[in-house]
Amino acid sequence: MSNMQLQNSKQVEKDLKKLFKKYGIEKKITVEKIKKWIWDADGPAMEAVNKYNKKCFQLFPEIEDIDELNNVMQVFVSAWNTFPHKELDGKSPEQMMQGLAEEEPKNKKNQGNMPRVRVGDNEMSFEEFEAMLKEMEKAQKPFKRWIEKDALPKYEKYLEQMMRNPRTRENHYDVAEIFFQRVLHVGFVDLESIRPEFAWKEFPLWWSTHVLCSKLTPAKVRKSLEELFKFIDVVYS
């Protein structure tokens, strides 16, 4: 580890300790514990970092101020990038990036080669992948318009009428909004094309590792989806 990287590591440790003290959680979490979470993180990159972030945010009371939330997030992002990972052979992402930067001059001769993209069982050129995304976005336009202009506004009013508890209404609406965002991202073009397994199994499990500030369990996410589809059945059938 270079002197600069060592200084960065020491600064991140100070920032973490300061954050723990600010929120009064220094008795239940330590810098060494954070380092262990990072060292042991495994699996696909995005899933690993989201699981780590989820565990970190569960240490805190709910943070409603967006600037403060961003400040807290930045400390843990810095820790993730600075401390070593077992999956990276004991290096940090920062060290890996430095190594790539040093290798870049050797690889300039390959700059003209565009990467190929794998989608499911198919491999395609980057240009083909871009064309596929444009076609998908075009096909999704009516569905996206229905979600944003009709379904979600009506669902919000429905929840106001049916649910007395503001937090319950907020949770149900958040699940619906993020569910539709995920549905569009995955590539479904209408309600009928959404696979039941996606709604009742894949999305609730995805929620538990990707929605950082939520304490909803997969079972509660499924309960909210039941409410959403009950509304859709009543209003649109």
Describe it.
- 69% of the residues lie in helices and 3% in strands.
- It has 237 residues and is mostly helical.
- It folds into two domains: 3-105, no CATH class; 134-236, no CATH class.
- A two-stranded antiparallel sheet has the order 1-2.
- The longest helix has 37 residues, at 126-162.
What topology does this entry show?
Elements (H helix, E strand, L loop, with lengths): L2 H20 L8 H10 L4 H13 L8 H17 L10 H11 L12 E4 L2 E4 H37 L3 H21 L9 H15 L7 H19 L1
Antiparallel strand pairs: 1-2
Helix pairs in contact: 1-4, 3-4, 6-7, 7-9, 8-9
- Helix segment tally: 9
Q: How many whole angstroms does the radius of gyration measure?
A: 22 Å
Helix content: 55-70%
Largest sheet: 2 strands, antiparallel
